[in-house]
Amino acid sequence: MNIAVIGTGYVGLVSGVCFSDLGNHVTCVDKLKEKVEMLQQGEVPIYEPGLKELIEKNSSAGRLKFTTDLPSAVKDADIVIMAVGTPSLPNGEADLSYIMEAAKEVAAAVNSYKVIVTKSTVPVGTNEKIGNLIRSYTTESFDIASVPEFLREGSAIRDTLNPDRIVIGTESQLAQDMLVKLHGPLTDNIIFTDVRSAEMIKYASNAFLATKISFINEIANICEKVGADVTRVAEGMGYDKRIGSSFLKAGIGYGGSCFPKDTQALIQIAGHVDYDFKLLKSVVDVNNDQRYNVIRKLESILEDLSGKTIAIWGLAFKPETDDVRDAPAFEIITSLLQRGAKVKAYDPIATANFKKIFDHPDVKYCKVAEEAAHDADALCVLTEWREFQEISLHDIQSWLKTPILIDGRNIFTEQELADTEFAYYSVGRPSMNKGVREQSPILSF
Ligand code: UDX
């Protein structure tokens, strides 16, 4: 089939490349000329394992093209996939201006029957609005469909090629058949719904995963006070099939391009129909506060952070990505600076992206992990990069001025810590706290 993908962000680019790998002819469209030129030369604007190789393979096979020429791509396509950004407006609502603009341009180019699919995450009812808008611009026949995307950054290709499910929301049998033909090679587990339910599935899924994370983070906070170990608690809970073991890793909270934006958007969607989504509001509050535990723990050991040098390992919102959108590191570093500390920061690949947004005289960006830790008063691990897990704690101890380690992602084990002198704080594992004032809690009921 001939596919046009509008928008070469994470979702658009990865989906387009994967559909071409399945043997379809895919044209990826973007307004940004420089980005398109980069992609035409085989350069990839984002870091995503395996993506560059797949672009090279399918471009040289003639199945994958990049262009700024939206009308030509749409005219040649059987299926048009819209995957442009829907960022947050200041009030938390999704900004639909890009997708509506794209829909107008698609409408102007439609020359024969097309299935027009939205993969961007959009509020319930948006696909219908898109349909009405396109109908007001063209008399050609078309159908709309919502096919939300569930890929994760860092494992985007694996997730796209091996999805847990594909959700197809459309009212048209022809569109459904064409979309089954496109997605059929990926999975047998295809769910057919109406358009509005498909739109809701995406928000509900992300909100539920965010809820799991905030839930386990609160359990971790309680574990710290009652002397239980959250990793064992999560393991014990996870064996219950009704709960499941994933997304129960306690840490400093979720970030990234989806969870923060989509939880806020769902709260707004509910608000528009006079529903107060209290649970999700709490999930967001818990998440916003969780990152400050790093500061609270540092202060419980160092007391005054003024004049101290704090090393930060990890600027990306999670490992295997250079994406820093809504990364907890922003608030943590801002808080450190507000308290008069200096920061030395290192990330294996996200430093350049972080520095573009956060350039400050008291933040030194380092080229290697050791440089950041060298002579620092404490080290905070904010992203669980494998590279950090592979560094010996003895080396880290020898680099730091004082052996203070705040492990925001629980990457170190009891054995690794055993013969070190660290004052160590992780998340929800009080039995591993070493050399800190607050030892085993005393419970009184
Ligand atoms: C997420 C969804 O998983 C994906 O389905 C959707 O399409 C986009 O949003 P992504 O943001 O790429 O994907 O990353 P994900 O692996 O889901 O992690 C999101 C955040 O949650 C990260 O900050 C991560 O550190 C955090 N997280 C995840 C936890 O703190 N604990 C966990 O157990 C899992």
Automatic annotation (TrEMBL):
<keyword id="KW-0560">Oxidoreductase</keyword>
<feature type="binding site">
    <location>
        <position position="30"/>
    </location>
    <ligand>
        <name>NAD(+)</name>
    </ligand>
</feature>
<feature type="binding site">
    <location>
        <position position="318"/>
    </location>
    <ligand>
        <name>substrate</name>
    </ligand>
</feature>
<feature type="binding site">
    <location>
        <position position="86"/>
    </location>
    <ligand>
        <name>NAD(+)</name>
    </ligand>
</feature>
<feature type="binding site">
    <location>
        <position position="261"/>
    </location>
    <ligand>
        <name>NAD(+)</name>
    </ligand>
</feature>
<feature type="binding site">
    <location>
        <position position="121"/>
    </location>
    <ligand>
        <name>NAD(+)</name>
    </ligand>
</feature>
<feature type="binding site">
    <location>
        <position position="325"/>
    </location>
    <ligand>
        <name>NAD(+)</name>
    </ligand>
</feature>
<dbReference type="InterPro" id="IPR017476">
    <property type="entry name" value="UDP-Glc/GDP-Man"/>
</dbReference>
<dbReference type="InterPro" id="IPR008927">
    <property type="entry name" value="6-PGluconate_DH-like_C_sf"/>
</dbReference>
<feature type="domain" description="UDP-glucose/GDP-mannose dehydrogenase C-terminal">
    <location>
        <begin position="311"/>
        <end position="414"/>
    </location>
</feature>
<feature type="binding site">
    <location>
        <position position="35"/>
    </location>
    <ligand>
        <name>NAD(+)</name>
    </ligand>
</feature>
<comment type="similarity">
    <text>Belongs to the UDP-glucose/GDP-mannose dehydrogenase family.</text>
</comment>
<dbReference type="GO" id="GO:0003979">
    <property type="term" value="F:UDP-glucose 6-dehydrogenase activity"/>
</dbReference>
<dbReference type="Pfam" id="PF03720">
    <property type="entry name" value="UDPG_MGDP_dh_C"/>
</dbReference>
<protein>
    <recommendedName>
        <fullName>UDP-glucose 6-dehydrogenase</fullName>
        <ecNumber>1.1.1.22</ecNumber>
    </recommendedName>
</protein>
<dbReference type="InterPro" id="IPR001732">
    <property type="entry name" value="UDP-Glc/GDP-Man_DH_N"/>
</dbReference>
<dbReference type="InterPro" id="IPR014026">
    <property type="entry name" value="UDP-Glc/GDP-Man_DH_dimer"/>
</dbReference>
<feature type="binding site">
    <location>
        <position position="202"/>
    </location>
    <ligand>
        <name>substrate</name>
    </ligand>
</feature>
<feature type="binding site">
    <location>
        <position position="255"/>
    </location>
    <ligand>
        <name>substrate</name>
    </ligand>
</feature>
<dbReference type="Pfam" id="PF00984">
    <property type="entry name" value="UDPG_MGDP_dh"/>
</dbReference>
<comment type="pathway">
    <text>Nucleotide-sugar biosynthesis; UDP-alpha-D-glucuronate biosynthesis; UDP-alpha-D-glucuronate from UDP-alpha-D-glucose: step 1/1.</text>
</comment>
<dbReference type="Pfam" id="PF03721">
    <property type="entry name" value="UDPG_MGDP_dh_N"/>
</dbReference>
<feature type="binding site">
    <location>
        <begin position="247"/>
        <end position="251"/>
    </location>
    <ligand>
        <name>substrate</name>
    </ligand>
</feature>
<feature type="binding site">
    <location>
        <position position="153"/>
    </location>
    <ligand>
        <name>NAD(+)</name>
    </ligand>
</feature>
<dbReference type="GO" id="GO:0051287">
    <property type="term" value="F:NAD binding"/>
</dbReference>
<dbReference type="InterPro" id="IPR028357">
    <property type="entry name" value="UDPglc_DH_bac"/>
</dbReference>
<keyword id="KW-0520">NAD</keyword>
<feature type="active site" description="Nucleophile">
    <location>
        <position position="258"/>
    </location>
</feature>
<dbReference type="GO" id="GO:0000271">
    <property type="term" value="P:polysaccharide biosynthetic process"/>
</dbReference>
<dbReference type="InterPro" id="IPR036220">
    <property type="entry name" value="UDP-Glc/GDP-Man_DH_C_sf"/>
</dbReference>
<dbReference type="InterPro" id="IPR014027">
    <property type="entry name" value="UDP-Glc/GDP-Man_DH_C"/>
</dbReference>
<feature type="binding site">
    <location>
        <begin position="150"/>
        <end position="153"/>
    </location>
    <ligand>
        <name>substrate</name>
    </ligand>
</feature>
<dbReference type="InterPro" id="IPR036291">
    <property type="entry name" value="NAD(P)-bd_dom_sf"/>
</dbReference>
